[in-house]
Amino acid sequence: MNALTLNLLGDLEVIRDGQVLALPPSRKTRALLAYLALHTRSLSREHLCDLLWEMPDDPRGSLRWSLSKLRRLVDAPGRTRLRADRNGVGLDTTDIDIDVVGLHELHGERLESADVAALEHTAGRYRGPFLEGLELDRFADFHGWCLAERQAALRAQTALLAALVARLMHTPERALPHAHAWVRIAPFDETARARLVNLLLALHRPREAEQQLQLGVRLIREAGLPLNGQLLRAWRETKQLAAATPADTAPTPLSLSVVGELTLPEGDTLEVMRWAALLAPNPSPATLSQVSGLDINRIGAALEVAERRHWLTAEGGGLRFTQSDMATELYAAISPARRQAMHRRVAEWLAETPLTDISQAQELTHHAQASGDLELAARATVEAGRFCLRICANEQAQHFAQHGLALAEKIAGIRRVCLALELHDILYSAVPLADWESGAREVVALAEQALEHGALAHARLGYQLASHIRWAHGQWSDAHEETLQAERAMRCAEGREQIIAMAETARCLAMLERDLDQATELLAQAREEAIRQRIAHPAIPLAQGLLSLHEDRFDAAEAYFKEARTLCKAMGDRLGEFQAQETLLLMDMERDDYPRAQERCLQLRELGERLRDGSEAPYAAAAEALCRYAREDDPGPFGVALVTLRHADARHRLAVLLLQAARLDLTRGRIESTRQRAAESLEHAKVLERRTEQLLAHALLAEAARRLGDTAEWQHHALAAEALAQAPVAGWARRRWQALREQPAAEDET
């Protein structure tokens, strides 16, 4: 066994002498390791910088930092594997055991000649897709390489499992785990599913074989792929159940191809059996009652006939077909038009029922799409996506949103525009945009179309979404304009949507520190109307909290943000819940209540890890490390956490935490660290046009310069802070600045 093992299938993993090593927090550093491991030649520094970094960052500096972290992983005393000079970088992998390399070595004739134990060992190392969760889709060249490697590994693993199953068919117990693995990675492959059914029947597990048959037929049909008959042949040719079943309990034949000689069910029984086939594999009497239109007594009588003839059996509160092909043939015998109408009825019934789990959401989208109504199908993906966001199932929400957008493209007119806006909103909440500038432009274009057609609520949604996208990436002037456009779009609206629009506009203006008088006026109108119409929406307390915080009324702000957090949680708005908690955390830090702040960090971190792969989780980790610095005087973890937060491109969150850290540094006499952190925060605040953070940064830099005796720098920053203090900045920041400004005079007197 090699002393160093590198696993790239699934989550990246480095193992030395049997111990799993802790990986650098930077995703780019981990991506660099994988890229170097699969390239046997030295690669130029310029190529690696272009691959994983972008201007205006310092690509060469970032590359050097990443290489320093990788050396600790791959190098050992007396063995230098990572080799770098001024021009190039390479990784010597001659004594590194790399799982994906071993997988690719088994191909062609080697699959036939290698012994089964070696094949099983290699197959068992496949823990998931190549570099799972490490696509870095903002970087096109690396993303393309990663996807190509992922597909190649998937093909190789599929071929390996197929060969294993074929060679082990005579020992089904040993072949079965490999057949299950084959089906997991190739769920639409009829051959894989047929082999699994063969093995389950050979092991006398007909119930599981039947479930796999029904699931396979359904998945392949939903994907729009043709069925070649392998699954049904696997079932019919292999099963021995008919011969073993006593004649008096054998199910009455139900072959729809021989209607003339058979006792087909009639009347209510036939109708119930058709609905059961549509709802297979696990129809329930309750669902049949809701969708079939028959009363419960008629359904009960029909089910009694079906059970007596051994067509259906009741298990665990549900129903099951005793012969799996029975459901398939019954479903196929329903006329296409009737089938679509039945699917539509099921979809409409599911849409009326609150979703409680992902399988129910999948049922909704399945039946809606099978109904043939594109708008109903797209609307179902909206409902399913929103439910997934509520339970923090972001990957599934992304899947539903992308599927819905593909459906919406086939819909004409304003209905397409409105659905697309709702789906873009879900997509943005589920995953950060790879190309956020194009995404913002696309959303604005949709909002303009909605406005032209008088769809005011959707126009507001589009402008507001574009504002949030641009705010998150530092385009605050553009975000300000989109916010105002959202408010203008709703001036002719009425009721709930107008209230939400005014509150959202007030909230965004407060976040941007722009037009605060207008924000106050809009919020007052929104509150008055909300009280009159008995409407509650988190945008109202969020806006109230931000304005109260700006006015240095911490107690009032805290009450509003707690209310907003509760409303967001109840509505399933996890991003809003995080933002409310985030502001409460900032208030704890401003009060120097770090024990309470640390408790809040635990909640933030738990929520951040469940949210999309954005800046929320890195921010929560950095905030927690900052609390540790405040309480234990250990700045090390905070410095490490900042690296990940920088890579997340969250300028505002970075600026806020840097200011808090600089304030701690100043208190503890670490003047140079104060200067560095306050200067970096000032840089971000200038890009974001945030006057509050600029004031605090200048104030800290002025005090640091005073303590170092640098009169010129002290005067520069003091004058800059004085000018900013006259502008509309947060009252608590002005109070903090005044305390720092008065400190030199107080010390001089002593």
**How much helix, percentage-wise, in residues?**
over 70%
Question: Main β-sheet, in a few words?
Answer: 4 strands, mixed
Q: Provide the CATH architecture of the domain at 1-167.
A: Orthogonal Bundle
Q: How far is the first residue's CA from the last residue's CA? A: 70 Å
Overall strand count: 9
Strand adjacency order, main sheet: 3-2-1-7
Using the coordinates above, name the CATH class of the domain at 1-167. Answer: Mainly Alpha
Please provide a written account of the structure.
This protein has 750 residues and is mainly α. Among the domains are: 1-167, Winged helix-like DNA-binding domain superfamily/Winged helix DNA-binding domain (Arc Repressor Mutant, subunit A), CATH 1.10.10; 267-334, Orthogonal Bundle (Arc Repressor Mutant, subunit A); 538-634, Serine Threonine Protein Phosphatase 5, Tetratricopeptide repeat; 650-750, Alpha Horseshoe (Serine Threonine Protein Phosphatase 5, Tetratricopeptide repeat). Helices cover 71% and strands 4% of the residues. The chain is built from 37 helices and 9 strands. A 4-stranded mixed beta sheet has the order 3-2-1-7. Strands 4-6-5 form a 3-stranded antiparallel beta sheet. A hairpin with a 2-residue loop joins strand 8 and strand 9 (318-321). Helix 1 crosses helix 3 and helix 10 (206-222) packs parallel to helix 16 (324-333). The longest helix has 28 residues, at 140-167. Residues 240-250, 252-264 and 745-750 have low confidence and may be disordered. Keywords: Coiled coil. Residues 509-536 form a coiled coil. It comes from Billgrantia tianxiuensis.
